[in-house]
Amino acid sequence: MHLIACKVIVFISTLTTDNKRKVFAVDDSIYDKNRSKKLELLSKVYDHVADCYLYGFRFLTLALTDGISLIPIDFSFLGGKNIRCSANPNIDKRSNGGKRRFEATLKAPDVLLSMIDGVRNIISNGSYIVFDSWFCTPSLIRRLRERCLHVTGRLMNNDMYYLFRRNSIDQFFTLSQLFEKLKKIPKAVRERQQQTPDILGSLCVALSSVKENGEELPAIPVKIVFLQNRNAPGKKA
Question: Where are the domains of the chain?
Answer without folding.
Answer: 2-153, 162-227
